[in-house]
Design a protein that fits this description.
CATH class of the largest domain: Alpha Beta
Strand order of the largest sheet: 1-3-2-4-5-8-9
Number of helices: 10
Number of domains: 2
Number of strands: 9
Largest sheet: 7 strands, mixed
Structural class: alpha/beta
Order of helices and strands: EEHEHEHEHHHEEHEHEHH
Oligomer: single chain
């Protein structure tokens, strides 16, 4: 699949290293614009829309294997042999699968606030809302926000979700392809199995208040990721890059520079 992407040329070098960024569930590359722009001071950054998200193509097929292969195909199209890869949440699981399937294309891995283990379902209310709310009848984004507020009281989360609203002659609609994502969701929250040990240097960044990575997870991760390191970001939840961008950028920058 030919993914939509945005390239941020490096501003400090004619021959920089490359960094790919993968967003999470219901996200898109725009969510990472500020981070990508800052990191492009040292790296050529390629931020992507994963399949069925943002402006990338829709497909009834969706799996971490396919999403990892999508990234590998993009690297081949851009003639980038190896790169650092960073993924958040769902994107973090994609990049872990990528490390397993395409280790020759990876030089460093950054996994943001997710572990390879399985998780309990935490998005049922979102799927219910997206299946029942008719955004096409909304006259403006304020009405769409009010409809979504019934199930999501956090204005920041609603703002993130409403970035997926697009408008056409038929009114507002969601950019992401809901049905395949919903069908994929049980796999998304299941534990990853690995064919091999992951030997690339890998940084796991997690929020102090998130709960997505625990002490038990760290022990499990170290069995598979032979060069794993861990950084906890204080006063951050799951959206580390948005809640504590300076601390996040410092952690990423230090890891990539080593």
């Amino acid at each position: 699949m030919k993914l939509n992407y945005k390239l941020y040329p490096c501003t400090s070098s004619d021959a920089p290293k490359h960094l790919f960024i993968l967003h999470g569930l219901f996200g898109m590359l725009d969510n990472w614009h500020n981070i990508a722009r800052k990191l492009s001071e040292e790296y050529t950054v390629i931020s992507i829309d994963q399949r069925n998200h943002g402006n990338s193509p829709h497909s009834e097929e969706m799996s971490f294997e396919l999403m990892a292969d999508d990234l590998a195909e993009l690297m081949d199209d851009l003639q980038i042999a190896t790169a650092a890869i960073m993924g958040h949440s769902m994107g973090g699981k994609t990049v872990m699968r990528f490390a397993d399937l395409h280790p020759d294309k990876l030089n460093k891995l950054i996994v943001v606030d997710i572990s390879p283990r399985g998780y309990k379902s935490g998005h049922d209310a979102y799927f219910k809302a997206f299946n029942t709310i008719d955004f096409s009848v909304c006259q403006n984004r304020n009405e769409a926000d009010a409809a979504l507020a019934v199930i999501e009281p956090n204005a920041g989360v609603r703002q993130f979700l409403l970035k997926n609203l697009d408008r056409s002659e038929k009114g507002y609609h969601l950019k992401f392809n809901l049905k395949p994502i919903e069908s994929f969701y049980p796999q998304m929250i299941s534990a990853l199995d690995f064919q091999w040990l992951i030997n690339a240097p890998t940084l796991f960044i997690y929020g102090e208040n998130s709960g997505y990575i625990t002490g038990d997870d760290i022990l499990t991760i170290e069995h598979t990721f032979t060069q794993a390191s861990f950084i906890e970001i204080k006063d951050a939840g799951h959206w580390i890059h948005a809640e504590q961008p300076e601390a996040f950028l410092k952690a990423v920058g230090t890891f990539l520079a080593d």
